[in-house]
Amino acid sequence: MILILPILFFLLISCQSNSVEAFNFDRDCPEWLKIKIDSISTQSYYTGTVVNRYKWNDSYLFEFSIPLSSCMLCELYYIDGTKTNFPDDNTVQEYLNNRTEKVFVWEYPDI
Q1: Which of 6, 17, 63, 107 is deepest in the core (most CB within 10 A)?
Q2: Which residues neighbour 71 within 8 Å (Cβ) at sequence distance 6 or greater?
Q3: Do residues 77 and 34 touch, judged by C-beta distance below 8 A?
């Protein structure tokens, strides 16, 4: 019995994980996003672009970080492909402060 308790405790601790499973592009990427990425992957405007997925307000958002753009959060999409723009600075700050579960999705390929 004494040996069983430490083993059970170890199993309980090792089964609890706060990590997010790695994003599998083929499996987890919505079709609309695959099409968008295919279309931008040859455009020099998108050089250096990184796409990450975040969870915010019980929704997933795909955020395009485009270094050549002077617009912050200009390309932000819900998981269904709906593009969103925040109505005001308070919403932007709320998003930036409360987004979670950052998952790397894609980055512009090096040529």
Answers
A1: 63
A2: none
A3: no
DSSP string, the chain: -TTHHHHHHHHHHHH---PPPPP-HHHHS-HHHHHHHHHHTT-GGGTT-EEEEEEETTEEEEEEE-TT-S-TT-EEEETTS-B---SSHHHHHHHHHH-EEEEEEEEPPP-
Distances (CA, A) of 30 to 19, 27, 82, 100, 105: 22, 8, 12, 19, 11
pTM (2 decimals)? 0.76
